[in-house]
Write a structure and sequence with these properties.
Elements lengths: L8 E2 L5 E2 L3 E3 L15 H12 L4 E8 L11 E2 L6 H14 L5 E7 L14 E2 L16 E2 L2 H21 L3 E6 L4 H6 L14 H4 L1 H14 L5 E6 L10 H13 L4 E5 L16 H5 L3 H6 L4 H8 L6 E4 L5 H10 L4 E4 L9 H6 L17 H4 L4 H26 L8 H15 L2
Parallel strand pairs: 3-4, 3-13, 4-5, 4-6, 6-9, 7-8, 9-10, 10-11, 11-12, 12-13
Antiparallel strand pairs: 1-2
Helix pairs in contact: 1-2, 1-14, 2-3, 3-6, 14-15
Length: 425
Amino acid sequence: MPSLFSQSLTLPCGAVLPNRLSKAAMTEGLATAEGIPTAELARLYGLWSDGGAGMLLSGNIIIDKDHLERPGNVVIDRPPSRQMRDALARWAADATRNGNQFWAQISHAGRQTQKLVNKNPKAPSAIKLGLPGGQFGEPVALMIDEIHDIVQRFGVCAAAVKEAGFTGVQIHAAHGYLLSQFLSPRSNQRIDVYGGDLANRARALLEVVASVRAAVGPDFPVAVKLNSADFQKGGFAFEESLQVAQWLQEASIDLIEISGGTYEQPKLLGLAGMEEEEKQNVAQSTMMREAYFVDFAVAMRKKVTVPLMVTGGFRQRTAMEQALESGAADLIGLGRPMCVMTDAPYQLIAGLEELPRYENSLSLFPSWLAWLGNLKILKAVAGFAVQYWFYGQIDSIGRTGSADPKLTVFEATKKTMAAQKKLMR
């Protein structure tokens, strides 16, 4: 009997994904200092294409060079030059060589722009990110005309990637980036038409959707990555997410990827980083299925018919199959496992029961050290350091064609930070 994973998925626009497994968006850091895709980036995505996923999502493609998610992002903030067009076309050709789809995740970091990129990033309101360490600067509230310019930039970026051979786009409105900042009353305290009630806070996102749809036409997939919730008191709440999802469906979106959290409350990093009392607040069914956002998808499915993608925590084959069988998810996103096992989709289709849990063996600090210092700060540092280990694997695949599982967390952190500083010189 054919695997559930092997079934195709037809989107509202008419495009067809060849199977139900997607490589999730993960930041690569492999562009030049000018934001141009490199041969290393093309090699990385060629190997992921060979790995059997029906769709690959790029990492953040930034629509404003002054608001990078990290140095090394691809940047399309104006109609592309010949050099950029050629580089994008090479990237897209390698990323689709196995007959899969390749979508561009387009984004603006807003106040989550590192200080080494921009000391005063633009944001919905002048509310600084609540993280220790001074890594992020003092944001400046956007003017109305600047918001309109950002909306148009999303459309320019979408048109450029379509011309280059990408087969879809995803608008990033999750994880505390700019459009997510507009949605949250914690980070959006404007008193004009872009702030206040939910309809106003969602205005920027819906205008971006309209701009992108106008740029790519009705037959090109347009998706949105949306937080189920921010998991912060006074932040973007799940009931609000359900309403925004309905508005997105009315705006002709083809797929919604459900995620959650921000840099301040990084639930996207997984249950392993939660306190025990936090874990008790996650439905037992989700704990059994592993996937962090499946229960949110179940509730969202009652409100919308648009296809849903769920990413985050999937490791067991049975958990993925249950999500697909129940209708909670139409597409399964795979992230960290593909940083080492680039053919994870083929392995699952062939019958693999469980993907490796690399993060379980990684540690920056001995467990006892956390109790001697500031527990919250050490946990935050350790969480991002483990993430840097996965960055290191992505970098190794792009540069050498294979992962480097022997890389230590400390070495990966050091290399990532040094590479970012070098790009910003």
